[in-house]
Amino acid sequence: MNSEIFLRPFREFPASVxxxxxxxxxxxxxxxxxxxxxxxxxLEQLHLVKRSVIVIYGYKNSFKALQLFFACIRCGYIPFIxxxxxxxxxxxxxxxxxxxxESLPSGQFTAAAHTKVRSENFYYRINDDLYIGDENDLLIVxxxxxxxxxxxxxLLGKSQxxxxxxxxxxxxxISQEDVTLLLxxxxxxxxxxxQFLSHLFSGAAIVxxxxxxxxxxxxxxxxxxxxxxxxxxxxxxRLLLYYNQDTPRINNRLRFITLGGDKPQAQTLQKMFALxxxxxxxxxxxxxxxxxxxxxxxxxxLSGEEEWCIGDINPGISVEVLAEKKYEAMYRHANxxxxxxxxxxxxxxYIRGNKLKRTASSQVLRTKDMCIEKEKRFxx
Length: 380
Prior knowledge:
The chain is an alpha/beta fold and 380 residues long. Helices cover 26% and strands 29% of the residues. Helix 3 (62-75) links the parallel strand 3 and strand 4 (78-82). The longest helix has 16 residues, at 29-44. It is globular and about 60 Å long. The mean pLDDT is 89.
């Protein structure tokens, strides 16, 4: 599959807009793509190895990071957006270049060439033994690092990512009429793929906020841009509730809010519904299988006693519980075990150094998430 398909929305929806809230500027898709092409033009002059990895490091401004991301795709490189982790946690990856919002310290980069690409710091020819991808390699995202000291580098493919985008669009009926407010980092697969790319491919308006500042400005921004949806994590939702604890209701035109990344507490859901008065959807997924696998709809009705279920499975995806006998007695012989996901969006594997450790199956992922199956409902 050609990388150009991930640039097609800019030409298909030239009048749709991307708003950079910190700059208070609105760009049409066509104008944004022109900026991408300027970066790509300079980057191509360096003649780097095609399908090598380019890291986009330390950018707090999503607008700038996304310009560099699409420039890498345009040039045939594999982008990896890294927002705030320590440099030491990415140096095991044999990447070919790194964009940085600031000058990087000497040491590992002493022998690297340093230049400016559209005023951005760029260090290149860093490693001799590069990771060189295959034709289907698209981008890298990292795991949270909760199960290892060094976060895993998760390689996602073009066809797999495109399948997940289409599944997200269908599950939430995302269209060109939507206006999404992005508070999540684009280094996070839920923010980059489930929200940004799914809306980009729909030609929707995309409002790029600055997380903490946007949380404080949220009531104003919702009305100014006529926002129809926001994607959040439970942690971000709790922060928003804290800053609005004395607000009875925020006026809005929201069609829905999603909460993904962890199980939200019933109290959080109830308070969010009271504050916004719109459907609150819980989403279940993980970067290795696509950031959204299932959608739990109408969570404003969740009570404190109700079990947390992952919800309706996204189009084109199926799940099953792989039974574990050692847990059956604990749950009265219910079908309990690890959740397996069958999906066309399964990751390609983990990159270690300059090698790809491929996944056991290109279609099925056995997760470490414990689930109980009850009448075709999957409860975590």
